[in-house]
Amino acid sequence: MTFTDLQKANKTLTTTNIKGKAYTEVNQRIKAFRMLYPEGFIHTDIESEKDGVVVMRATVGIYEGEGMKVLATGHAYEKENSTQINKTSYIENCETSAVGRALGMLGIGIDTSVASAEEVGNAIAQQEALAEQASEAQLCEIKQNYPADQLRNIAEYFGHSNINQLTEAEANKVLAKARARK
Predict the structure, then answer these.
(1) Least packed by Cβ within 10 Å: which of 22, 29, 63, 152?
(2) What is the rounded distance in angstroms from the CA atom of residue 34 to the CA atom of residue 55?
């Protein structure tokens, strides 16, 4: 592949606008890779998965004779339940991000950023989710008003494994009931 080939492939990619900046989606990067390297490979491996956290590595390359030549790699990290999509698909989401980064490292779809549209969208969703989490003050007040067994029930009621995962809105509902009892 020449630089001219890469430029031509990149010109065929459509982008997604996120907060005023164009990002290339992973599916577009894969299409360009297949255009440039029809016989190339994309391999993914889970480097670690423990306690709801997964790290993936993606390797892209070509077959040469009897062997394989690695052209680029990319890594990604995702936490289960960190976003709505990660509640059910954090491993798949991580794999997509790793592939997007590997193809970005190869030069595909990086006119504005190595990060893919999916990766940026996920980062924004994670930031928004963190901003919406219950404050320490809310959690302390809840813990002062309810015994431990009720805290577990409250967490489960909202679909969480523990009380510390409550959102600000959920905490406000719990506190409103606690305050109404007084």
Answers:
(1) 63
(2) 25
